[in-house]
Amino acid sequence: MSILGTRVVRIEDPAFLTRGAVYTDDVQDEQLDGACHVFFVRSPLAHARINSIDLSAARDAPGVIAAYTAADLVDVPELAPMMAAVDQHMTQPLLAGDVVRYAGEPVAVIVTEQPYQGEDAAELADVDYDPLPVVVDMSDALRDDAPRLFPAAASNVAITFGDAATFDTGLFDGCEVVVTRTIENQRVAPAPMETRAAAAAWGQDGRLTAWIPNQGAQGTRAALAAMLGLDQSDVRIITPAVGGGFGAKFGADPEAGLVCLVAKRLGRPARWAESRNENLAGMTHGRAQRQTVTIGGSRDGTVQAYRLEVIQDCGAYPKIGTILPSLTLLMTPGPYAFPRAESAAVAVLTNTTPIGAYRGAGRPEATAAVERAMDLFAAEIGADPAQVRRKNLLPPFTEPHKTAFGAVYDTGDYAAALDKVLAAADYAGLREEQARRREAGEISQLGVGVSCYVEITGGGSEAGPPNENGTVEVHPDGRATILTGTSPHGQGHETVWAMLASQELGIPMDKITVKWGDTDLIPEGGGTGGSRSLQQGGAAVRQASLELIEVARQRAADRLEVSASDLVFDVGQSQFEVAGDPDAAVPLAGLAETERLFVRSVFSAPGPTFPFGAHVAVVEVDTGTGKVSLRRMITVDDAGTVVNPLLAEGQRHGGIAQGAAQAFLEEIIYDSDGNLLTASFADYPFLSATEVPSFELVDMATPTTYNPLGAKGIGEAGTIGSTPAVQSAVVDAVSHLGVRHIDMPTSPQRVWRALQAARAAAGPAAAGQTAAGPAAEEDR
Amino acid sequence: MKVQLTVNGEDRCDDVEPRLLLVHYLRQVLGLRAANVGCDTTSCGACTVLLNGESVKSCTVLTVQADGQEVTTAEGLARDDELHPVQAAFRQEHGLQCGFCTPGMVMAAIGLLAENPHPTETEVRQGLEGNFCRCTGYHNIVRAVLAAADMMSSAPEVAK
Description:
heterodimer, A: alpha+beta, Aldehyde Oxidoreductase, domain 4, B: 160 residues, alpha+beta, Ubiquitin-like (UB roll), DNA polymerase, domain 1, 2 domains, five-stranded mixed beta sheet, 5 helices, 14% strand
């Protein structure tokens, strides 16, 4: 019986549970003996000229070994924007020199003997700032008279995708109904439980070894080598256990580079672990788009045209968030068969923390936009939002479908996903209960939100199609080792890669060791992100295992002096047998005795895959206070064939929760001076166990033909589907009171204000009653 | 200042800075690094340990406050490589992914079950409200705690 498709518990868990996993701050290594501790002095201002930095008092503080400013880094070039099309003036210094551009930007480094001493000494750092005009809002940053982050650049615009000026003025011709709305896809914090950290040691040979929590050691090595002007062969990245990444731990941040520089200058290992306060201010944030959607169609529910205009807030420096609108635009029409659609985006700098990838990275934004548009359209024509979706979904397809935006959807049956989720949710029953509460005028109103989505996973790069390498080695003692270019940080690759190899080699899972994240051991790899790992890295492990059997088969043939074609590999016994003579056998492990038995294989996919699904969210909204309670989440998330349902469900649970949290809870807030008001977990409303229900998962698996596993990515799907479903449910709960839209997060304040505005718009006579008044504008 | 305390059954006597947090004492002085630091505001619970059998956030306890008391960390739970029922349930129900919150979450769950051996789902969620997890959406953590409660009530001798 196949182990694939079964609920195998994780082999990595016992160590995690009994001793705790070894994260970067836990690493004990003789190369790090006597390490000094690095602390960063960060700017309290969002935009300011630095007149001077006096570190003399800090240098005299107890335990201080050294202190540095940008003046000590004149030989270290600033970081160039990662894309050539971005204005090349927009460079990021490792330490701010003349100007700080966001609150929390590092301006000085203090190095101490003991960890607590840095924070003490930082109090004595005297930085003289001249405040500069601040621009926090992305729309403000586009104005001609906006404060400029880089006066040498033409404007605050980092890059544009498409051109709104060339939009088809006749796009909505012939539509009976056209609705337009500007909506916020607010800035949120990835907030992995493990904050950023780094440890660095330089060898006698001049090579750098750095321990950095990351999502792909090879990418981190490339980024760090470029930052420090090193040859990649002179850098070894070791990836300890990583306490969550969510897109924000790709590459290398300036702080990690500075830790390496400190270690080099002092000739002594150095380490750094940031506080949560630093993490919320310094690690990249996610999302941060302002979207204007326009949707038009006929009163029978057919959508004829859709337009999406995006402003992407980049934060103060153009990091990966700057280019994520390209993915948003790629997925413009989502799962729908719109006859006409167009989109464009502009990415602009503001005096805020830079924007990076966050679970979904560009695709949740596309889904949120189109789903909100579908709801607005349905509300305008007075139709059921699920039925309007059903009417406009693409029909099922098994041959790749190319959209007008260039995406090639591999396989999909979007209507089946919607039907399944509506049935599981008892949608009709929910609508009945909603009608009852509305009729009774209850304070607690029921809201039902529906979303449909398709997303892109396992994308390739400019360098070529999606691919990943895997190495499988069988040892004479019957054990096996797998090397992978992916980089698990909670996904369970140790378990699943062992399942895949065990399935082909017949070696028990507990005899298989999976290794990743050490660039000396595994020089190439794409890491883990974009929901790519199983469909490429897992497929590579399977492919390497099968190729290894063929290598072994030839050795077995030589050993047994028979023709290779006469040999049968008995997976159950993990041995080769001569067909018709079961006594003539040789174990697979035995073939590794005289010569190493291993295969490194690269799996290439023809293209990215497109998981899809449909979510239903059920909320209760207290119409007196505006408080939202998430009661149910029912989801179909079709990611093709599932190798380990236990782990795939875990990915869905986590994704659903993070997406829901964006819809009704989480938000990074700056004041108009650029002060971060959500700089701790006391202020940032991180989702807790009391704020979500248990989730109701519905199975659906439409295999892809792009890899032999039939698997698509599952890491981000939950996040993509749940955000619009929950937002929609909140609006739905109060729609009968005249509310058409509430921006995320649907906090009590926003819901309460929307209700007040709706009541006011309906007139005094209708206040407090069920009112079918005009759609109320919510005051942002 | 001199402190004397018992950690995972072992008597300890150390000279510590008065401001040293218990979590840093455990991690830096004793090398017990299962408890993690995830925030600065007693919000996340990654550092949760048992102090005289009650779960506390060790980032909000000074080492000197623990003087004369008994501390249990995740390292002190498993005996002879056999997982504590709560640990076993976390594994069985896939209640952990990246693992960073896990040692604290397990200790909080043990504290919760000591107070309320038969909690409802709502009581589990309320009991763990002060322990954040970014990976699991709490779904399987709740399942694990409920499963552990069942396991411990059917085999009370391992409950301690």
